[in-house]
Amino acid sequence: MGLIFVVIIAYFINIFKLSKNSINNIAKELNAEELSKNNVIANEEILLNIVEEMAIASQMKMPNLCNKR
User: Fold this and answer.
1) Which end of the chain is more exposed for a tag (fewer CB within 10 A), N or C?
2) What does the DSSP 8-state code read for residue 41?
């Protein structure tokens, strides 16, 4: 019974931490870099272009993209 209680408490703590952190903080914890047009390689540039076109088509702002290299 005590183990189940500990697991449930740990679960809710992690959910709270994830909801509080932005995607940038999570990316930093994973040692990922934000992708921009200035620092991409060929495959990443293709991904960046696709996401940019989808953002334009849906009339939304361009999301931040991160990649772990």
Assistant:
1) N
2) -
Report the SS3 class of residue 5.
helix
Phi-psi region for residue 31, left (φ > 0), alpha (ψ -120 to 50) or beta? left
- 4-54 pLDDT, tens digit per residue, is 888 999 888 887 776 666 677 777 878 888 888 888 888 889 999 999 999
Task: Dig out the tokens for 60 from the structure.
Answer: 């939304």
Cα 66–Cα 33–Cα 27 angle in degrees, nearest 5: 65
20 shares its domain with 44: no
Strand partners, 65: 35
Q: How many domains does the chain have?
A: 2
